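new request in #modeling-help
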Amino acid sequence: MENALEPNLAPAGEPALTPTGRAILGMLSLGKTSGYDIKQLVDKSTRHFWAASYGQIYPELKRLEDQGLVRGHEEPTGGRPRRVYELTEAGRAALAAWLASEREPLYELRDEGMLKLFFSDVLPEQRLANIRAMRRRMERKLEQLVAVRAHAHEMSPGPALTLDLGVTTTETFIQWCEAVEARLAEKE
Amino acid sequence: MENALEPNLAPAGEPALTPTGRAILGMLSLGKTSGYDIKQLVDKSTRHFWAASYGQIYPELKRLEDQGLVRGHEEPTGGRPRRVYELTEAGRAALAAWLASEREPLYELRDEGMLKLFFSDVLPEQRLANIRAMRRRMERKLEQLVAVRAHAHEMSPGPALTLDLGVTTTETFIQWCEAVEARLAEKE
DNA sequence: AGGTGCATGTAACAGGTTACATGATTAA
DNA sequence: TTAATCATGTAACCTGTTACATGCACCT
């Protein structure tokens, strides 16, 4: 009988963190910021493999503060309210514990383009168009990744490596599409 | 002002389909089966880019039947109940409409391994271990993909191409890991 | 007699998105 | 003055997973 642990069960004593909670702690390790800025940063940097919405970020920051992992204080910009958060010592420890944890990391992919390709025998005349559409999407993604990489010189190893991996796999995807497109177009 | 359409809004007259509903219609295009068999097939074939659980499949089959897109009837195996579904004409048309649709396909990725790499500057001594863990996971995935590919000769183009794309990108991922691991190990 | 696989289904939960509400600041 | 951007937050909704409940069939 397998003694299956719950995926997010914290290892004795450590606070339970949601996946988004972990991501937010990570973002705060890059410097103290507001919920709004976290969203901007996510959209610029990790969105291709980890997205987040305001509806998730703001409540999560509150929960993290309740757990003592982050500390927030008001830093209004003129009359415009602004709440800035930073990691506490406990938060930094929780972040390090996560990074060192050997628990199977969450991996979830839902790719409708691939699903369309999988079922493309039903409508073979659409197959080439589907692959072209997938390639175009990947080209857009590559463009954005490359645009961010333009700041590579100011990047530390973590983000730089992640970005490079993204670029490499995206390029492979595009090359595969090009090769298959050529093969399919030839047959016509 | 952008006139943003709801993602799943059906193009006038066509039945609204959930993402899982589309996947189920696709699976039924491969032949009539039961909910149980759909789950087995998904786990064997599309799970790396499109998973499904019983809790989703059974209610969805019922909804699809209510919409007239599939038709189910009892086909017990001895005393063991079994409900087998097949596409109706309307279902086949909905499937074709989906495959031909130019709506931006759903793409969702949540990869905690990448997130760990992104924040690895907080705990640089774990970086190499994180990358190794990612490579091991990808090697397991590749193994499963290759195992399915052993039946490639009996596969039609759709599944075969999808599988090939999966193998190609996974191999690239692994090669990237190997290269970076070598670079990091050298520095130590 | 007992374990594994076949087979169906539901209820509770978790996690996340979207749309909405609100309002200040800044640049055109 | 008006649009875009900064900034926070919530409620309703959607989608999906997990755990559970049930029971037959087959093999050892």
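bot summary: Residues 6, 34-37, 54-55, 58-59, 77, 80-83 of chain B lie near DNA strand C (CB under 10 Å from a C1').
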